[in-house]
Amino acid sequence: MTYFKKIFKFANPYKKYIFLNIFFNILYAFFSALSFLSLMPMLEVLFGDNKRTYTNPEFNNLSSFGNDLEEWLNFQVSTFSGDDPKKALIFVISIIIILFFFKNFFNYIAMYFITFLRNGVLKDLRENVYKKIISLPLPYFSEKKKGDVISRITADVLEIQHSFLSVLELIVREPLTIFFTILAMFLISFKLTAFVLFFIPLSGFIISLIGKSLKDTSNIVQQEQAEILSITEETLQGLKIIKGFVAELFFVNRFKKTNNKFYNYSNKLINRQNLASPLSEFLGISVIGVLLWYGGQLVLVDLELKPAAFLTYMGLAYGVLTPAKAISKASYSIKKGNAAAERVMEILESKSTIIDTKNPINKNSFEKELSFENVSFKYEKEIVLKNLSFKIKKGNTIAIVGQSGSGKSTIANLIPRFYDVSAGEIKIDGINIKDLAKNDLRNLIGLVTQDSILFNDSISKNITLSNLKADSNLIIEAAKIANANEFIHKIENNFNSNVGDGGGKLSGGQKQRISIARAVLNNPPIMILDEATSSLDSESEKLVQDALENLMKNRTSIIIAHRLSTIQNANLILVMNEGEIIEKGKHDELLELNGVYSKLIKLQSFS
Predict the structure, then answer these.
(1) How far apart are CA 560 and CA 575, in angstroms?
(2) Cβ contacts of residue 319 below 8 Å, gap of 6+?
(3) What residues in the chain have per-residue pLDDT under 50?
(4) Strand arrangement, sheet containing 369-379
(5) Could you tell me the CA-to-CA distances from 8 to 55, 98, 157 in Å, in that order?
(6) What is the largest distance, in Å, between two alpha-carbon atoms of the chain?
(7) How far apart are CA 184 and CA 318, in angstroms?
(8) Are 4 and 334 in contact (CB under 8 A)?
(9) Positive or negative: CA dihedral 294, 300, 306, 312
(10) How far is CA 109 from each of CA 34, 103, 105, 528, rounded to the nearest angstrom?
(11) Helices of type H across 238-374
């Protein structure tokens, strides 16, 4: 229940529904007991000796309360119907129908209010998990499988919803039903009820033994379900590669292995859950059998209980089985749900390593320079950058080149604080970026990534992601600068065209130009272009490069490129190798050095 206590805090906004549910569950439980008690005069009318009582009986002591209660009910029927058995039958049946109507009516009202509570908690929990996922830093997701995260926000949250409902039934409706039913049983026969209560804890202990291992098994089932989602997500993402390398059989076998594990553990889990109902019913019937033996003696031998009262008592005793079975099932469900709650709370309680300071500095403009001062960075144990130092003056363009894996893209990730430096400082206008509000820092930066990331929405929505209030004129202007306006107008719905999942309806060059238009619309003072033109054909690359050069005249730009033809006009070129700057200068200066940069130029010219 540890994790459920944490989940219950999400019920705070829906307290009124909890109280309303409890109130109507009390009425339901009360009328449930009354509806069984109403069977007593019915049995008396049908199987009694037709004696009528016109004197209101006195309740003398607890031991004879059952018989006295029966006399009192008989008195009520006699008062209304006189000596007419048909009238008595109609009266008793009417009372039974009315009581059962109220019992079921209050049950519906209780469930009506619990629906708002259950779905409200589900909505808020899912929303909070999603917000947390978005707020967590990128390093968190490099350690997690996407399918596992998706499983937690879908399957696990849904499991909590079902378990949450079970908990409310467990702590409110079913115990109240049992309480009122046992109270009615006490009213009929104190001796018989005391005898029964001796066996109930024994039954509960046996049931609890079976449920102990459910949480661990459920946790494994949910992990395997997450693995299935991960494999499916990877398969859809890399379907072209899988087919291209004829690797279908490998992935089918991989999926089959996980699916079989899920199958086996699910069978184990569900079979244990299925055991709850028949086991609790068998134990209940065993208690009923003991009741028949002991109660039969009270009726036939000791003459302490009348037949109609005993039959009603048996109905009440059997009526306890239904809520008892529900509690048994709910306890199994709680153990299963607690495992899901643990997985969800793991995300909600994850601490972000990239956070604002207590009093972050608000900054809305870039005035002087961006500087790296002795910056080092490592992914876990792998050192990626080693003691980098350089400055970028406002309005200048700096290019970073080097072989793959030299640390170029890492620099682009450190400036907007997607990752934090391991040592040293990155400063904007002399202020450490860790002291700036994250949103303010990122609003100063426009980003075009190496992989053109588009979302399954219209072209217009993808461009305005950085500026949701932009009007159509600004969108068209940004598209023109990115050399995207012409091909957009050739598409049937122009800017309202849907790009498909991941931009699948567009070519690589088209996707990249929309990404560039998105960065252009943002109009930031600092622009980071991480292989921004890598997906363009030669003609488009020239047009976009000219547009970007015009765009970069009044802003600071950081260009990361393999294709060195795109960065020859940069104010400063940094040549990277294994996380270090091995050469720096302008294009002509680096050619004169006849070093690494010169060799790269010659290689690309030759190719």
Answers:
(1) 10
(2) 32, 36, 181
(3) 49-50, 54, 66, 606-607
(4) 382-393, 369-379, 423-428, 431-432
(5) 54, 36, 13
(6) 124
(7) 13
(8) yes
(9) positive
(10) 18, 10, 6, 59
(11) 239-244, 248-300, 307-348
Distance CA 325, CA 169 (A): 12
The pair of three-digit structure tokens given for residue 231, joined into one six-digit string: 């494999």
3-class DSSP state for residue 385? strand
Contact yes or no for 558/412 (Cβ under 8 A): yes
Taking Cα atoms as reference points, which of 160, 169, 217 lies closest to residue 325?
A: 169
Q: Which helix (H) or strand (E) holds 67?
A: helix 65-81
| CA-angle at 12, arms to 6 and 13, nearest 5° | 135
Domains assigned to the chain: 2-348 (1.20.1560.10), 369-606 (3.40.50.300)
- Which pLDDT tens digit goes with each residue over 137-151? 777 777 777 777 777
- Residue 353 sits at φ, ψ, to 5 deg, of -85, -15
CB contact burial 19-43 (16+ within 10 A = b; e otherwise): ebbbebbbbbbbbbbbbbbbbbbbb
Cα separation, 527 vs 272, in Å, equals 59
Q: What is the pLDDT of residue 606?
A: 47
Supply the pLDDT for residue 513: 80
Cα 82 to Cα 78: distance, rounded to the nearest angstrom? 5
Q: Is 471 exposed, middle or buried (0-12, 13-18, 19+ CB in 10 A)?
A: exposed
Give residue 607's pLDDT: 45
Q: Is-contact 509 536, C-beta < 8 A?
A: yes
User: What does the block give as tokens for 364?
Assistant: 């809305």
Quick one: how far is CA 438 from the chain centroid? 26
Least Cα distance to 29 among 96, 110, 116 occurs for 110
Q: What is the token pair recorded at 499? A: 């790009």
Beta carbons within 8 Å of 223's beta carbon, 6+ residues apart: 148
Neighbours of 189 (CB within 10 A): 27
* Secondary structure of residue 50 in the 3-state scheme: coil
Yes or no: say if 318 and 185 are a contact pair by the CB < 8 Å rule. no
For residue 172, what are the contacts with CB-CB under 8 A and spacing of at least 6?
21, 22, 25
Beta strands in 441-485 (DSSP E): 445-448
Cα–Cα distance measured from residue 36 to residue 39, given in angstroms and rounded to the nearest whole number: 6
User: How far apart are the C-alpha atoms of 114 and 120, rounded to whole Å?
Assistant: 10
* Backbone region of residue 424 per phi and psi (left: phi > 0; alpha: psi in -120 to 50; beta: other values): left
Give one DSSP letter per residue of 304-342, joined into a string: -S-HHHHHHHHHHHHHHHHHHHHHHHHHHHHHHHHHHHH
Least Cα distance to 532 among 601, 447, 472 occurs for 447
Could you give the 3-state DSSP secondary structure of residue 437? coil
Provide the H-helix boundaries in 136-173: 138-142, 146-151, 157-168
Q: Residue 426: which H helix or E strand, with range?
A: strand 423-428
The token pair at 261 is 């594990």
